[in-house]
Amino acid sequence: MNIKMTSQSRFKFRRGEKEDMFAVHEMIQELADYEEMSNGPQQTVEDLKRDCHTEYCHIYVLDYLKEESEKVIIGYAICYFSYSTWLGKCYFLEDIYVRPAYRRLGAGSFMFREIAAQALGYQCKRIDFHVLSWNPATEFYKKLGAFDLTETEAWHYYRLNEKGINQVTIENTFVRGPSPSYSDDLNSENAAMSATLPIDSMSMKEHQPVRKQKHFLKEFCNLSVPHESKSSVKQGRHTFAFWAVVLVLLVLTVGNLILTLTIIGVLRLGKGIYGMELIPEEDVIKFFGCTDLDRIYSKNVGQFEGFIDEPLTITGDNAAVYVRMHHRNGQIHNRLIVDKSGVQFRGINTLDIKDPETGAVIFTTHRPHYNMPKGANMLLSKSIGATRIASAINQSLAITAPDDRLSIRGSEGIRIDAAAMFLQAEHNLLINSTQGALTLEANSGIYLNMEKIPIVKAEMGLRTGSVQYKLCVCMPQGIVFRIAIPRVHNGPKVSCAHFSAKHDPCIIN
């Protein structure tokens, strides 16, 4: 949707009608999604229709008049009256919202000024509203003259939800006797006694004498209390014994819970251990389900196996898994490390990874063959000793050294066999034979890429039209360069020294 900048005459701010509440309900959900509280709105469209024309809820909408004389609701605001003990009548702005497609047209400031005009018409002394700390509209409100009470007066916004209201109400409830009777028998001896007493005002307890209770009821309720029977006293003692037993059981339950949590913390079984079976004669411990342990230690050769139908999974809680070897001298060495970067192993003779169902080896370090597992494309190692390195058919083999120099050595020689071979270095490529000659041999001949060998300007400048070049080498650097040989040459013979001093190819920058 393309919207052009327009004058504020296209805006119309009005009180919302019942037929507007569906659009208002949609925008309330849009605002909740923007504030990352999508599950917050509980109001329905019917609730908004019921409250939109009441005195305690003022729902406003903002219309936008299009060029075709068609109007569309692009924003809403909800306000209600509040009261200040210092100033009197105030106006509280609960929500103000403009749909994203119609922003930056001045709609927000237009709505706010119209709300201020409404507050002035209602003779309100101020407008209060709350803004999330990360909302970029805070700068907009400051420009309009609003100030942050949290910064200036250290006010904090508190809320008591419906559950809290019910809880507070329950804590201040009343103790009620039998329902009041308004019959003519109220003053008779058989009439039921009725009293309603606030908990905060009661000072009676089970152990107080009956005379004091009578005196209290007489003064508080102006009611006559019949004589207590022996059965009432006995019932009170039974009640006291009952609650004493309940209190003792509660203390025992809490103590048992604390002891259980202590055992769980000491054994580090925080995430649960569903089952464990000890088999001493087989020197085996079986774990069932999920087990959370810090470490497993074995004095002898340790073996970890899973059940036939359930593979064994060892994971770390946001950490690596280490398999360590403890030597007799107390030193600890990591032999196998599994973390996010990969699998690292060192100082071991063999490592076999087998298929849990078929038992086939899918990864092994056993000599003389080292097979890369399926799906692994790179082997990272500082040093590899092997008699042969090969790649699969129709697959290229790349040997790189990203951080240091690459050295390939062979005690009996090195042989590289490939359909096509590329030697590439970022800086320098050195092929050296310390005790013998270096031989380049090919059935179809040896070719040099002349485009990569620089042409050096001669003393008389760069010669054009040349088809032949003299290939020269700077010693001892070994830098190769070319000097053009002209087609027609009547002067002295061109040598490797016929180059300009300004363009000396043997000088290394």
Overall description:
With 509 residues, the protein is α+β, with helices and mostly antiparallel strands. Among the domains are: 11-153, Aminopeptidase; 278-364, no CATH class; 450-508, no CATH class. It contains eight helices and 17 strands. The chain has helices spanning 21-34, 45-51, 107-121, 137-143, 149-152, 162-171, 210-221, 230-267; strands spanning 11-15, 58-65, 71-84, 88-98, 127-129, 174-176, 196-198, 273-279, 284-291, 321-326, 332-339, 342-345, 352-354, 361-364, 455-456, 468-474, 479-485. The strands form six sheets. A five-stranded mixed beta sheet has the order 1-2-3-4-5, sandwiched between helices. Strands 10-11-12 form a three-stranded antiparallel beta sheet, with no helix packed on it. α1 (21-34) crosses α2 (45-51). It is flat. It starts with 10 loop residues before the first strand and ends in a 24-residue tail after the last strand. Belongs to the acetyltransferase family. Belongs to the sarcoglycan beta/delta/gamma/zeta family.
Order of helices and strands: EHHEEEHEHHHEEHHEEEEEEEEEE
Overall structural class, as computed from helix and strand content, comes to: alpha+beta
Termini Cα gap: 60 Å
* CATH architecture descriptor text of the domain at 11-153: 3-Layer(aba) Sandwich
CATH topology type of the domain at 11-153: Aminopeptidase
Proportion of residues in helical segments: 10-25%
CATH class of the domain at 11-153: Alpha Beta
Strand content: 15-25%
How is the largest sheet built, in terms of strand order? 1-2-3-4-5
CATH superfamily of the domain at 11-153: Gcn5-related N-acetyltransferase (GNAT)
Low-confidence stretches: 1-5, 174-229
Number of helical regions: 8
State mean pLDDT (0 to 100 scale). 75
Give Rg in angstroms.
Answer: 46 Å
- In this structure, how is the largest beta sheet organized? 5 strands, mixed
From the spread of the alpha carbons, the general shape counts as flat
Query: How many individual β-strands?
Result: 17
Membrane topology: Single-pass type II membrane protein
Pfam family, one: Sarcoglycan_1
Transmembrane segments: 240-267
Domain N-acetyltransferase: 11-166
